[in-house]
Design a protein that fits this description.
Blueprint: H1 4-33, H2 37-63, H3 83-110, H4 114-144, H5 148-158
Helix pairs in contact: 1-2, 1-3, 2-5, 3-4
The structure holds MU-OXO-diiron (FEO).
């Protein structure tokens, strides 16, 4: 059984991961509508990844013999100022998620929950990767500086992204 503070933090995180999925699905729809199908694909894969993250937490709570409590998902934005602003928002969002994961780790450390600390390490590493990937895309977009050719090339590159489920998420 998880201690109450750890359980509350993880239940909140399940909600945050589903919110993230919903946010990226909304961004995928935005790009789709703009004809940027590669960007839309990238965001759709990101949506799938976030859902997989939520399930990873969900399975962990069950595995520890505790109770998942699902809460309401907040409304996500459906319109964005520009292509660049979507990526800026994505980076901001991932930085916030990193803070949340660090916060759960702090609680697990306070509560001497070694199993949860070990479980969370995957997310700590994942966040480093997520922030780095989005920062790279953002840097490329800044270099492109709105030029159609560059956007076209980057969009094509983003068509290649595919969702690969983490086998450890199966629980
Ligand atoms: Fe589930 Fe993008 O962090």
């Amino acid at each position: 059984m998880l201690k109450e503070k750890v359980l509350d933090a993880i239940n909140n995180q399940i909600n945050a991961e589903i919110y993230s999925a919903y946010l990226y699905l909304s961004m995928s729809a935005y790009f789709n509508n703009k004809g940027l199908n590669g960007f839309a694909n990238w965001m759709f894969v990101q949506y799938q990844e976030e859902l997989a993250h939520s399930i990873k937490f969900f399975n962990y709570v069950n595995e520890r013999g505790s109770r998942v409590v699902l809460k309401a998902i907040e409304q996500v934005p459906s319109d964005f100022e520009s292509t660049l602003s979507v990526w800026e928002k994505t980076l901001e969002h991932e930085q916030m998620v990193t803070e949340m994961i660090n916060g759960i780790m702090d609680v697990a450390i306070e509560e001497n929950d070694h199993a949860t600390k070990s479980f969370l390490q995957w997310f700590i590493d994942e966040q480093v990767e997520e922030e780095a990937t989005v920062t790279e895309i953002l840097d490329t977009l800044k270099l492109i500086d709105g030029q159609a050719n560059g956007i076209f090339m980057l969009d094509r590159e983003m068509r290649q992204r595919v969702f690969v489920n983490d086998p450890t998420a199966a629980g």
